[in-house]
User: Which sequence fits this backbone?
């Protein structure tokens, strides 16, 4: 992986991580388009640059993350992330195997896209319009929904947003809670991957540290812009366009697999 490749991958990560379109699916297409070999470090890199995206959420919503008087906010996030921590630990090896299946990603993209076409009509009359109104039970339920995203191609953002809307959150409230929940979830996943790679490889080389630094900076900047855009867009137009987008990308992936371009 060279510097240009790391920048392009980071841009894709920043754009897709918080949108309901699956960053994994886009990573696969991008890596193949760039002619990259999927080494152990590349696998770690695509996960580790989530730290930059996480930081974008913290910066944009710093009043919530650093208002320590609102301790309920932290308890809700802790409760919501427990299902992902437990299942992620239990099925870590299985998840890694699925990540290598482009067909799984393509099918998940298509199915998820079809679901998003109907989500705005399926969950009507929302009553929860702010994070403060999200109860502990709702937070845990959304956390359970998020676990569906352990299937590559589902999209963590999409799964948790659908879960939020199923729990009567408005579109924007569901999207924002999905962002908040991403912080502990992605931090745990990234930390685990980095530690595992460090332990197996005996450390990071200077070049690898450089690529990780560049990737996280780029992902941070791009994610900031993507989050601001997404919230405004969802309030006005809903999720239908994202459903069609997922279907198109899923179809492209299936075509590339059929042609043998992607294994």
Assistant:
């Amino acid at each position: 992986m060279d510097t240009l490749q790391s920048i392009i991958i980071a841009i894709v990560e920043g754009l897709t991580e918080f949108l309901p379109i699956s960053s994994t699916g886009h990573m696969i297409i991008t890596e193949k388009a760039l002619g990259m070999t999927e080494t152990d470090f590349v696998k770690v890199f695509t996960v580790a640059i989530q730290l930059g995206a996480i930081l974008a959420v913290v910066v944009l919503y710093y009043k919530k993350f650093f208002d320590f008087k609102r301790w309920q906010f932290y308890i809700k996030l802790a409760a919501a992330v427990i299902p992902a921590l437990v299942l992620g630990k239990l099925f870590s090896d299985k998840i890694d195997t699925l990540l290598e299946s482009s067909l799984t990603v393509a099918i998940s993209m298509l199915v998820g896209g079809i679901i998003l076409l109907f989500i705005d009509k399926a969950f009507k009359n929302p009553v929860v319009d702010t994070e403060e109104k999200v109860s502990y039970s709702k937070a845990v339920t959304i956390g359970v929904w998020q676990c569906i995203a352990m299937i590559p191609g589902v999209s963590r953002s999409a799964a948790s947003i659908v879960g939020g809307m199923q729990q009567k959150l408005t579109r924007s409230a569901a999207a924002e809670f999905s962002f908040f929940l991403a912080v502990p979830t992605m931090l745990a996943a990234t930390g685990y991957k980095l530690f595992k790679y460090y332990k197996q490889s005996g450390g990071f080389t200077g070049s690898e540290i450089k690529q990780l630094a560049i990737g996280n900076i780029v992902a941070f900047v791009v994610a900031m812009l993507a989050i601001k855009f997404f919230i405004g867009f969802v309030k006005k137009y809903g999720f239908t366009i994202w459903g069609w987008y997922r279907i198109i990308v899923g179809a492209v992936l299936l075509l590339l697999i059929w042609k043998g371009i992607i294994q």
Summary: The chain has one domain: 3-258. The chain has a mean pLDDT of 89. The longest helix spans residues 206-237. The two ends are 20 Å apart (CA to CA).
